[in-house]
Specification:
With 383 residues, the protein is mainly beta. Helix content is 4%, strand content 37%.
Length: 383
């Protein structure tokens, strides 16, 4: 049975966009406002236009953790969708909400050519059971081939470690291992629930790669993101980094602690946070982004990082406390945009535009089943 929804006028007021860009050569364009139809949208955060999904030019893919075939919330139905944002701001549905019976589409990533038979396929993680109940039970890895509109199950990670009953809850893709690294040929995924990095192979075998529970390996360290650091900032190529808070696990997480950035070496994690990466992961602007082309951009949440974000128990407007930070060629940081609403803000570049998705309240872990997600762009106004 579908639950009733919040008053739409109130919801739109809660999500009013107030983003300000501080350079007059750039402008903010709202593409999908909070209160329309997106729930927890996530722009592909490591988007490269030269991939199997990169056409037409200027488009970019955006996933959504929430959304079902009908508005509202039905605990018996799946949720999550995949869209293409075109250069003219048209949103094309690639995978309709809940179409594959998956329960969420978490941080999709595109397999490189040569990764078994799956080059160009999108891999994402998802709950097996919808909603909050499914957030803390075993998750599944899905794949979606080019031209497909329904995903296929790829595998369920085995239980590992001493935390969270070993359950691979809050599971998200990290990276495809780069050539010449210890993780070459692997898809590494992270579980926030049992603090484990898993290795996935093209034949769908999955094994715990690093258990970060402080008993069977380093930690405890609850991973929030796994990424390759920018070589100019890290001082070397192919530095694999896990972002999280040392000494923290899923059961004690809150929204106000500051994460560290820890180097992954082989099958262990060094306990000292890499000082140069204290600002977190960012993206370099492409040539079309005006006089800031080549500079690094990242969201700044001022210590906020959370798996549950804000929940159904807090149905109010979130603070306008986040920013976008620009790092110039000399390594100095500047505020580029301000008054972003709190929640998870993700960035992706395409041509002359910086695309930002805002999750606000959490659909799955937080049980907030209202369409309060949004998409907007900051674009260069010059020729």
């Amino acid at each position: 049975m579908t639950e009733p929804m919040m008053d739409p006028v109130r919801l739109k007021q809660m999500c009013a966009m107030r983003v300000e860009v501080l350079d007059p050569d750039y402008e903010v364009v709202e593409i999908v406002a909070g209160g329309e139809f997106l729930y927890d949208p996530q722009v592909f955060w490591d988007w490269k236009p030269d991939n199997a999904w990169g056409k037409p030019e200027g488009s970019i893919l955006i996933s959504d953790i929430g959304g079902q075939q009908q508005p509202g919330w039905d605990p018996a139905m799946g949720h999550g969708a995949l869209y293409r944002l075109h250069a003219d701001n048209r949103l094309e549905t690639i995978m309709a909400p809940g179409a594959g019976r998956q329960a969420g589409v978490f941080r999709p990533i595109i397999a490189p050519e040569g990764w078994g038979d799956w080059g160009g396929h999108i891999f994402f993680c998802s709950q097996i059971i919808p909603g909050r109940r499914g957030a803390v039970v075993d998750h599944m890895i899905y794949r979606l081939g080019p031209g497909d509109d329904k995903p296929h199950g790829f595998g369920i990670p085995p239980r590992a470690g001493s935390l969270g009953g070993g359950i691979s809850g809050a599971l998200m893709p990290g990276v495809f291992g780069r050539p010449g690294t210890p993780e070459e040929g692997l898809l590494l995924i992270i579980s926030m629930h049992n603090c484990t990095i898993y290795a996935v192979r093209p034949d769908a075998t999955i094994e715990p790669w690093i258990v970060m529970d402080g008993v069977n390996g380093p930690g405890p360290l609850m991973p929030y993101r796994l990424y390759y650091a920018d070589p100019e900032i890290a001082g070397e190529p192919n530095m694999l980094v896990v972002e999280g808070s040392w000494g923290t696990h899923f059961g004690v997480q809150n929204r106000t602690y500051k994460p560290g950035h820890y180097r992954v070496v082989g099958r262990t994690v060094e306990p000292e946070s890499v000082a140069a990466l204290s600002g977190g992961m960012g993206h370099r602007a492409p040539a079309g982004f005006g006089h800031y082309a080549g500079q690094m951009f990242r969201p700044e949440n001022h210590g906020f990082i959370s798996s549950v974000h804000w929940t159904a128990a807090e149905p109010q407007a979130l603070p306008y406390s986040a920013e976008i930070i620009r790092r110039d060629a000399d390594g100095k940081e500047h505020v580029f945009a301000t008054n972003l609403q709190a929640g998870q803000n993700l960035l992706g570049f395409t041509n002359n535009r910086l695309i930002i998705t805002n999750v606000r309240h959490s659909y799955s872990s937080g049980n907030f089943h209202e369409p309060d997600g949004s998409i907007y762009a900051i674009q260069y106004k010059g020729a």
